[in-house]
């Protein structure tokens, strides 16, 4: 029997690549339900699917923000059976919080957090009854470490991490695994959408010093990071499949080794001051971009690991 994998947000980026990679599995072990909010955007996926379309890859409509859409999609699946759920749909937001309305902030949570929770709630009873299943979340390193001007996005991913960390323990009792895939920057439409949004904003309500720092320091540094350290969506798809195929899937999987120091800092200093001050000093006292700060962090944590001060396991 094929393993039924339902993926959200497959019209572009990581979701699209993951659907294609799984559908092309040489042993044809996956029956992929590649879902998207708007079926008018299915051309790219259809073209990439080639011969797998309607064989190992099936396209369905699913808006993670709609109860009706989730119910309708699950009802269209044979026995409503989902063996592996990949909560990939997500939206980003960058910029000074003074210029973001609460409504805008809530919409990030509606998609990134409640969207994922909505589908988990819908598939869980059946997974529990069968005592098998795997819930895979497309989280982020920003689910573990906040990053300047990504306040609300990071909060939505933190929320997902806290939710899943709690749920994972209960679900293990039912032989259901939960895994968080935690990429650093990935070169998809995601970043372009973010840049596009801020290029049209005047940042109302934000002081000029903050706006200037955001535009003149953060944005160029962020572009540079995506260009130099960004991974491809294919790499994230492969990493996700590695986790999917594990006999006992891990709870956390960071895809970009350059980013592991970001999170290791937290565990090395439980006051939290080390990471906050390190970022502060690197950004504001030396005007250095994130890339250099990450390289420094990497050297620091590698030496911790080597000295045995911090264990990578
Ligand atoms: P993307 O913008 O190409 O993909 C996101 C997808 O989610 C899009 O297809 C979009 O249409 C879909 N989506 C948004 N709202 C939806 C809704 N209500 N219902 C259904 N689908 C919806 O970007 P991506 O980089 O492929 O992002 C995929 C996931 O990876 C996101 O959860 C994102 O937070 C996460 N992630 C991305 C990066 C990055 O740098 N690109 C890094 C870490 C994590």
UniProtKB/TrEMBL annotation:
Keywords: Lipid metabolism, Oxidoreductase. Belongs to the short-chain dehydrogenases/reductases (SDR) family. PANTHER family: RETINOL DEHYDROGENASE 8 (PTHR43391:SF8), RETINOL DEHYDROGENASE-RELATED (PTHR43391). InterPro entries: 17beta_DH, NAD(P)-bd_dom_sf, Sc_DH/Rdtase_CS, SDR_fam. It comes from Chiloscyllium punctatum (Brownbanded bambooshark). Substrate binds at residue 140. GO terms for molecular function: all-trans-retinol dehydrogenase (NAD+) activity; estradiol 17-beta-dehydrogenase [NAD(P)+] activity. This is NADP-retinol dehydrogenase. Signal peptide: none annotated. It comes from the Eukaryota. GO terms for cellular component: cytosol. The keyword Repressor does not apply. The active site is at residue 153. The keyword Amino-acid biosynthesis does not apply. GO terms for biological process: estrogen biosynthetic process; retinol metabolic process. NADP(+) binds at residues 9-37, 63, 157.
């Amino acid at each position: 029997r094929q393993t039924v994998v339902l993926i959200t947000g497959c019209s572009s980026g990581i979701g699209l690549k993951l659907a294609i990679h799984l559908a092309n599995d040489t042993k044809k072990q996956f029956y992929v339900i590649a879902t998207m909010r708007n079926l008018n955007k299915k051309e790219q996926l259809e073209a990439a699917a080639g011969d797998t379309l309607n064989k190992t890859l099936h396209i369905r409509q699913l808006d993670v923000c709609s109860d009706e859409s989730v119910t309708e999609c699950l009802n269209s699946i044979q026995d409503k059976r989902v063996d592996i759920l990949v909560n990939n749909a997500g939206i980003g937001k960058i910029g000074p919080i003074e210029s973001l309305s609460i409504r805008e902030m809530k919409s990030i949570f509606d998609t990134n957090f409640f969207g994922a929770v909505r589908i988990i709630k819908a598939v869980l009873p059946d997974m529990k009854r069968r005592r098998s299943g795997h819930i895979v979340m497309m989280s982020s390193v920003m689910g573990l470490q906040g990053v300047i001007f990504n306040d609300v996005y990071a909060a939505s991913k933190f929320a997902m991490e806290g939710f899943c960390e709690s749920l994972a323990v209960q679900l293990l009792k039912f032989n259901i695994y939960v895994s968080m895939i935690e990429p650093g920057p990935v070169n998809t439409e995601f970043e372009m959408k973010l840049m596009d949004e801020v290029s049209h904003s005047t940042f109302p309500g934000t002081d000029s010093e903050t706006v200037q720092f955001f535009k003149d320091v953060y944005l160029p540094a962020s572009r540079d990071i995506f260009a130099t350290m960004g991974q491809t969506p294919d790499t994230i798809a492969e990493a996700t499949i590695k986790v999917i195929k594990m006999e006992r899937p891990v709870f956390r999987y960071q895809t970009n080794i350059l980013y592991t120091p970001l999170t290791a800092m937290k565990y090395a200093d439980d006051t939290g001051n080390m990471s906050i001050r390190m970022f502060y000093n690197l950004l504001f006292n030396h005007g250095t971009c994130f890339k250099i700060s990450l390289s420094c962090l990497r050297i620091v944590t590698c030496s911790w690991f080597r000295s045995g001060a911090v264990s990578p396991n």
